[in-house]
Design goal:
The chain is mainly α and about 290 residues long. The chain has 15 helices and no strands. It folds into 2 domains: about 160 residues, UbiA prenyltransferase (Tetracycline Repressor, domain 2, Orthogonal Bundle), CATH 1.10.357.140; about 130 residues, Up-down Bundle (Four Helix Bundle (Hemerythrin (Met), subunit A)).
Length: about 290
């Protein structure tokens, strides 16, 4: 049996998405605070969150391997269409990661965090990838819920229950997801059309997509400020989130008026930076609901 480079398995998980997912889960655990005095439990819970995202992304690439082989954006970047990794190995690897995360959380943490992790994998891997994505141009809007669950898993891992704070973090990621992915969809809409995926710019056109991006960008700024208005963050976060959100709206506005692929790529790139900096800002602000 031929050996497979470790980097092929890493690529299968979509590491940028996994790291962002893990960051948002870590921030929720830091906000809650109780695991900060238990570094091993914190690390293992964070590892379970990471494995949850890695498993879901691995299943996604397994199920979409034929589509990925037909899209220029993915056929030379992902291990399955490049035939570096066999589909059977990808499936086993994805299943193993998910099983490890779910069992660890269920046996050594609590059933609430385990159930959310299981729901995340099932929702993204099967409902979103196999059913939702090929059927509606609102696939990203609904499917974005899967990418927003890390704060829920992290908070539940620390407490065994839910609170307002993780749901507000969930909301921020949920609102952020559509303009983030629609910006990318504008750049590669012809590729999506070629493989028959009903992304918003393919079905409703570029103008409708740019309008939706503007609306969601303003909604994102409002949702990010809720942490402050519910007294879950301080003034540093308030000012920082306004600045970061203002830049997000600026890039969305440039896309609206320029109507160019270059402007769409700018927004897509900044959107990743925005989410990472916003969640780091929560830690820097340091006002948590103890």
């Amino acid at each position: 049996m031929n050996s497979v480079p470790i980097k092929a398995y890493i690529a299968l998980t979509k590491p940028t998405i996994v790291l962002t997912f893990a960051l948002t889960g870590a921030v929720a655990m830091v906000m809650e605070g109780s695991l900060l005095h238990k570094p091993l439990q914190f690390f293992l819970a964070l590892l379970a969150i990471t494995f949850t995202a890695a498993s879901a992304n691995g299943f996604n690439q397994y199920f979409e391997r034929d589509i990925d082989a037909r899209m220029e954006r993915t056929r030379l970047r992902r291990p399955l269409p490049m035939k570096i990794l066999e589909p059977k190995r990808a499936l086993i690897f994805s299943f193993a990661l998910g099983l490890l995360a779910i069992i660890y959380l269920a046996v050594w943490v609590n059933w609430v965090s385990s159930a959310i992790a299981l729901g995340t994998i099932l929702f993204y891997s099967f409902y979103y990838t196999l059913w939702l994505k090929p059927r509606t141009h609102y696939n990203i809007v609904i499917g974005g819920a899967a990418g927003a669950t890390a704060p829920l898993i992290g908070w539940a891992a620390a407490t065994g229950h839910m609170a307002l704070a993780p749901w507000l973090l969930f909301l921020i990621i949920f609102i952020w997801t559509p303009p983030h992915f629609w910006a990318l969809a504008l750049c590669v809409k012809d590729q999506y059309a070629k493989v028959g995926l009903p992304m918003l710019p393919v079905i409703k056109g570029d103008a409708r997509t740019r309008n939706e991006i503007i609306l969601y960008s303003f909604a994102l700024v409002v949702s990010s400020l809720l942490l402050y208005f519910f007294h879950l963050s301080g003034f540093i976060y308030f000012v920082g989130s306004l600045v970061l959100g203002g830049v997000f709206v600026f890039y969305a506005g440039r896309l609206y008026f320029e109507k160019s692929v270059k402007a769409a790529y700018r927004l897509f790139g900044y959107s990743i930076i925005y989410l990472i900096l916003l969640f780091i800002l929560i830690i820097v602000d340091g006002r948590f609901p103890r």
